Structures are given as structure tokens and as C-alpha cells.
Amino acid sequence: MSQISNQEKSNFFDTFISYGRADSKEFATKLNDRLIGRGYEVWFDQDDIPPAVDWQNQIDDGIEKSHNFIFIIAPHSVKSLYCHKEIELAVKFKKRIIPLLHVNSDDYWSHMPEGIRKIIQKTNWIFFVEENNNFEESLTKLIETIELENDYVQKHTELLIKSLDWTRNNKQTNYLLVGEERSFANEWLKRKLNDSQPPCLPNDWHGEYICESNKNANNLMSMVFLAASEKDFDIKAKIGKTLMREGITLWTDKADLKAGVEFQSEINRGIEGADNFVYLISPDALKSDYCQQELARAFEYNKRIIPLLIKPTNLDEIPPQFRALQFIDLTGYEDELKYARGVEKLLKELNQDKSYYEYHKILLVKALKWKKQNHNPSLLLRGYNLEHMRAWFKVASERSQHPPVALHEEFIDASHNHPKDESLEVFISYSRADSDLTRKLNDLLQELGKTTWFDQQSIAVGADFEKEIKLGIENCDNFLFVISPRSVNSPYCADEVEYAQKLNKRIITILHTEVSSSELHPVLAKIQWIDFKKHGGDFSANFNELVRTLETDRDHVRSHTKWWQRAREWEKNEKRDDLLLRGIELDTAQKWLEEVEQENKQPAATCEQKEFINASREWQTRLLKQEKERQQREREKERKLEKERKLRWGSIAASILFAVVGSIVWNQKVKLDKTNQKLESQYINVLEELFLDNIVKQKSVSGEIKILDDDDAWITLPKQEGKIFSMLRRYGDGKVLALGHDGVLADVKIGRIFLMSAFGWLNPSSDGNKVLISSGHCEIASLKGSPFARPISSLEEWGYTLEDIAAPIDETKLREGNILVIGNAWGDFTQSEIDAVENFVKNGGSLFVVGLGWSWKGFSGKDYSHYPGGCKQEQQAGQDIQNISTYPMNRLVEPYKMQWTTSSVKFDEK
């Protein structure tokens, strides 16, 4: 339990003295002086009511801020209306009341209200009757009573003042408890004192304030949705207060429906975000359309429904599916004993399998948010969070009561099948004392489409904590640090800051709680923080400033992470040449490094990045030199052979030439066909080896391709667990080569050799070398404005002529080339274009197609207007988000009996 600081103590009183002036003024004054002499802070009207003020407000304020309430019993005090008001307020606040008997009387109780009388009668008195009791001995007993469970009593007062401030300030969220303070309040509320009567009890203000703080910290999710008819408001309010005093968070229409919001959607959100649905049954509730709609929604989501029968009701009027549930009888709730027994049963039910229903709710809320945001991938589960929820779902699916709904499974499957992110956008470094704020930041960043690393979701129990932290920092573009007294003094947070600095990460700081500048780590001290106390503490305004900061120079920090990851991989694998950059990737990396150095961009490049990029440039220079030398040798060899052929042909007589010309032509054709077949076979073998040596060993991810109608014309390259990711076939007189991921065209691990082998198979005879590159359908691989333009352009080095063929595709344009490349088009093709491509292949043309089922609008939920060249909505009008066969690339290749899917193929080295 946290201790109250000296400064906070000065705002409170150890005790309030209530007395009747006629009988006990002198005694009360003496008691006040003696307690002050013992070091206690005492509220005493003779000392604490200044002149010219509202004395009743002063008295009320004194009672609120006093840990104990001393009531001096004497004839005048038990009859005084002023004393009655004082003790009534102490009873209302559930303060520790200490009765002191000062003057005996035979007529105490007739003048005292019944509620006060019950409290006084059941509380042990301390006797200070002057003629019968020794003052010093009685004072010792009083001090022992004040000191008994003093921490608990002080916390009662501290939380009462905070809750009253919250109530008096229109229950604004910035008055709620957060972090450690909220955790301590929860411990206090649930604390049970062993073998003793509690000195004071939580009251309604405590219960509501602490529960609302918990709800606010958990994205307004609750443990109970309380449903009842408007006509049953009184008993609903009573049950709600009882539950909150036990720490049970509630959703009720009175507390949670804000002005200006859509009524039904907020109610639905309340049901979705509750562990349990508690339904108060009465004749009025059964007639209420709202109650029935709420009940139907609870059944739809398989919520645990707990019915409370609060009034005699004709059971035949209860819906059949609801009638089978076990009711808790709260009829006659006016009887406090019967009410207490019913509530005890309710609490027992709520606490049974508590964690199961909490996970059921959390996963449902995440899945619904994902669905409402058009399958926003940043909301998917990752890492430990995913594995944990998959394990929960496996067990939960076996339950007969309240099992998961279909959306639970859909969300988990989508999370599992989603390709692993190469990098994340934000690593959040914080102290656990600031968990409420950081959890809120994490959730809102994900809703905006930003991927985050947050230890509560990213580290599994039993994992190497330090290793996981370092991996998280390495793979994130930004390092976000939450400044508070706890975080700046945490050695763990300091280690994280230093590792982020070592990697030259962009560090962004937000000020959550004031700290001395001298306490800041030197790295943090030189960074301008985003003050979350600005704008009157308005979270949205300050959060928007954080988002703007994250968006600044976003491409630069993303590239910073990417090139560091590649450099790290190269270094870990003994700086193997096949892991170096080449082609367009190398050009992009070099351009990035030049801009960093020339423009002094921050974060700056690391030594590892510089070494890696420079080594890649040197290696590519060597390769190009070797390739030119090889081509030169080939040309020399060809010239020598040509010379020898001419000499041989020159010595043959013309008559013999004419006689055997037919035979020679035929033999040459057979020989050429055999040569071409041999070349094709060799190219296929090379392609297979490339996939095995590069994709599999690098544990890449590709899309899965499906062969339709068991067409055996397709030759598949190596499969992974039965899944196809690349294949080729003949069609008519032509050929088709299909890949399951557009990234292969620029993948550093496959590179130029793959393109050379692929085009060698497509055109082994070199009879034609005109390559047509399709554009105008939002293709990711095109000649103009695409990040993949450079690797395709490298074909020119091998003697191919390249030409951009803009939409629409027709047979006239296709006659100009031998090979057609269509790289993952997101825009629609017309039927005439599809027919023209098919005729081109049938008549001997070669088709190189690359697709990715994840690009289908129905899976990704995106438009692609932000990609090079843009992709307008009307260009995607033909896509049915329920039917993947409408993905433009699938329409294009339908004649060849294949289809790209939304499934992925992960290549783990065996």
C-alpha cells in the first residue's frame, strides 16, 4: 500500500471532534489539546472555523478530510441537530466513528435518529466519565484505536477526497486514478482484514470512483453490463453501487451514454465490452423492447447471462432460451438480509471462471474493431499476444457454455496467416507505473494503422526478456519514451534508451508526469519532448502532435530500419556475398545514404549500414565486370564458330549442296529442337535451385498459387508442405511462368540470375528478344514510376529490347513482342484484353505473370491511389470483395487453369 506523503498529510486531519457545547466544551478542548500534544492533527471547531465563512461548509469539509470521527456522548450532543448532521455525514461517508462517553444519561436513544443509533450501539465505546474513569487510561485506549489499521483508514480518506473532487468537477476523466495510484486503490478496495472488524468501509463514492478509473484504463470495457427496465431504476442503482463497492466495473446507460452519441451503437459497444450480461427480470423488463434487443445481442456474442429476478413475474412470458438459465432470486430485496444473500450469489457467479470471460471479451472487442475498420492489419494479433489467444481459443472451443463466436476464429486465423512484418513503426518504452497511458497510446496508434512493439503484447512468459527487448528496438522505426519519475529512474528504461541510441534510432519523448531535468538520461535531455499536459491535458490534441511527429520523414526512418536489418543479417552470416544488395535495391540504398550525409538527416546512418552498402556496391561492380568478360568470351567463341562454319560450307560443291539441302535443313531443325529442350530443362533446374537456395534458406514468405481442375500441364517448382508458390507450363504454342509474390522481381536474395533464367526458359532459342511490359492497370512491376523498374530494365544488358505497352492491351500491340510481362495488376482488365493475351500465348508468345492474393481488394481492404501512378477507385470497380476470382490477375490467368489465393507459404529451412 502506498504511503501518504507529508505534503498530503498536511491536507488531512487525524480526527474530527463532534460534541455538545452545553455539556462537553471544556472536555472537548482538553481532549483536543492532549491529542495535539501527542502529534495528531485535530479538526476542532474552536480552532478551525475562521470568521466570516459558511461554518456548515467548513464543518462538512473537516469531516471529509478527517480519518476518524470522535463523537462525545452527552445529553446535549445526542439531542443536538447540529451534532446529528455531523454524525450523519460521517455515517454517510462510512468513516471510522469512535464514540466517547463523557456524561451518563438514561435517555440517550429517544432523541437520536434510528440509523445513527444503530451505528453507535454496535460500536465499542471509550469511557471518559470524569467521576468513574481515569482520563489518561482512556486517552491511551483512544490513541490505540486511532492507530489501529491506520494505513487503511488514511487511504479511505485520501480516496474519498479524490472521488468527491471528481464528482464535483462533473466526473471529468483527468481526475481519475491512473498507474500505480489506481493499482493501490484497487488493493485497498479489495482488502479484507483478517480476524477483525474493518475500522471503516468503502462507500459509494469510493466504489464508483475506483471502478470508473479501472474502466477508463481499460478502454471503457467493463465486467458487467447491467440491463433493466427504466421503471426498475432504483433497484438497478442499488445493485450497481453494491457491485462497485466490491470493485466490479459496470456499464449502465445512465453513466455511459454521453450527450451527442448514437444511442444504439453505444449500447451495443457496452455489451460487446462487458464480461457478463446481468439482466434484471421484472414484468416491465419483459415488455421493454430495449431490454429484449440488449438480451438478443448478448446471446449473439455468447456472453455469460446472469438473470436476477427482482419482482414476481409470470415465467411463461420469459423467452424460452432465457427460461433455461438459472435465476438468482432478489424478489423482496427491501429485506436487507435477503438482498445480501442474493448479492453474495451474484458475486460468486461473477468470480467463477473470471479470466475466461475477460479474454472472451477482449478478443471479441479487438475482432469487432478489426472488422469495422475494414480488416485493418495493424489491429491483428502478433507475437506473444497471438500465441496466447490461439491457446485460449483452442481450449475455449471445447466449451459447451459461452464458447467463442465465429468472429473470434476469423480474427485469430487472419492474424496467424498475415505475413510477418519486416519492421514495426513504434517501440514504446515506459515504466509499469504508467501502464494506463501507454496501453491507451498503443491501442490508438494501432487503430491509426501503425504497428507497435508493446511488451504487454509482445513478450511471452518465460522468454528471454532482455533479448526480446533488443529485438523489438532493432525492428522498430521509432523509439517512443514516456517520461515520468518512475521511468527516468528505471535502470531497465535507461538500458533501452542506450540501445536505441547505439542503433541511431529516432527517439521521441512524451512528458506524462513532471520530472526534474537533472533526472533525465543525457540522451533524453537533448530531445524536445511532447508535453501531454499541454492544451489543458487534452489527450486528443497532444496525441495528434505525437502522430504528426511520427509521420515526419517517415520514409527515411523506415529505410533506416530496413538497411540496418539487412546489414545485421549480412554480418551475422559471415558477410556472405549472396546477402549483399544489388540492382534497384542497391541504387535505392545508395541514394538514401547520400541524402542522409548531404542533408544531415536524423537519425544518421550507422557504421554497419555504411559498411554494408559500400560492400554491396563493390561486389556489384565486380559482378558486372565478370558478366561483361563472360559475354565477351561468348562473342569471341561465336565468331570463331561462325568462321569455321563458313569455311566448311565454302568447300562443299554446289551440286552436293542442292542434293542434300533438304536433309541438312531437317537435321538442323531436329538438332535445334533438342538443344532448345535441353536448355529449357536446364533453366527449370536453375529456377528450382534458386528457390531452394534463396527463398527457403532465407525463411521468406510468398503467396500460394492454386492449380484449378487438376490441370497436369503445370510444372511446379519445389513445394512447401504441399503448397505451390511458383510454376510454369506450355499453352498452345506459347509458355506461361507464374510467381506467387511480386517482391521476387527485386529480391536481393534471388536477383539478376533469376530473371536471366526465367527469361531463358521463356525464350531459349533467342529467335526474338522483344519484351513488352504491361502498364495502365496499376501494375507494381512496370517501366514507369515503379520501384521494380530497375530490375526489369537490367534485361537490356542481356540483349533484350524493352517496351512499355500501355492499356488497353490488344493484338496489334502484342504482335510487336515475344514476351509479355504483367506484374501484379490491381486495376481491372477488360475481357477483350484477356482474350488478346490468351491468343498471344496460343500463337507462340511467352507470358510472365506475377501476382499476390493479398493485393485483392477484398483481402487488403485498400485502394492503391498512393502507389506510383495511382490506382483510382473506378479502376477497381470490377472487384467483388467476396470473390477472389475477381482479383484482376486471377481474371487474366483464368484460361490457364490457375489462381492466386490469400494464403501464404512460409519457407522454414528443414
Description:
The protein is 50% helix and 14% strand. The chain is of the alpha/beta class. Strands 17, 18, 19, 20, 21, 22, 23 and 24 form an 8-stranded mixed sheet that branches. Helix 11 crosses helix 12, helix 20 packs antiparallel against helix 21 and helix 30 crosses helix 32. The radius of gyration is 39 Å and the shape is elongated.
Low-confidence stretches: 1-7, 649-676
SS class:
alpha/beta
Distance between the termini: 53 Å
Note the overall shape: elongated
Mean pLDDT: 84
How much of the sequence is in beta strands?
5-15%
State the total count of DSSP E strands: 25
Report on the biggest sheet: 8 strands, mixed
Radius of gyration: 39 Å
- Number of DSSP helices? 39
Q: Bin the helical content.
A: 40-55%
What is the element layout, followed by pairings?
Blueprint: H1 6-9, E1 13-18, H2 21-37, E2 42-43, H3 45-48, H4 55-64, E3 66-73, H5 75-79, H6 81-92, E4 96-101, H7 114-121, E5 126-127, H8 135-147, H9 150-168, H10 179-190, H11 204-217, E6 222-227, H12 233-245, E7 250-251, H13 253-256, H14 263-272, E8 274-281, H15 283-287, H16 289-300, E9 304-309, H17 320-323, E10 328-329, H18 336-351, H19 354-372, H20 383-396, H21 406-417, E11 424-429, H22 435-447, E12 452-453, H23 455-458, H24 465-474, E13 476-483, H25 485-488, H26 491-502, E14 506-511, H27 522-525, E15 530-531, H28 534-537, H29 539-551, H30 554-572, H31 583-598, H32 607-650, H33 654-696, E16 701-707, E17 715-716, E18 726-731, E19 734-739, H34 751-762, E20 770-775, E21 779-781, H35 789-793, E22 801-806, H36 811-814, E23 819-825, H37 831-842, E24 846-850, H38 857-860, H39 888-892, E25 898-906
Parallel strand pairs: 1-2, 1-3, 3-4, 4-5, 6-7, 6-8, 8-9, 9-10, 11-12, 11-13, 13-14, 14-15, 19-24, 20-22, 20-23, 23-24
Antiparallel strand pairs: 16-25, 17-18, 18-19, 21-23
Helix pairs in contact: 9-11, 10-11, 11-12, 19-21, 20-21, 30-32, 31-32, 33-34
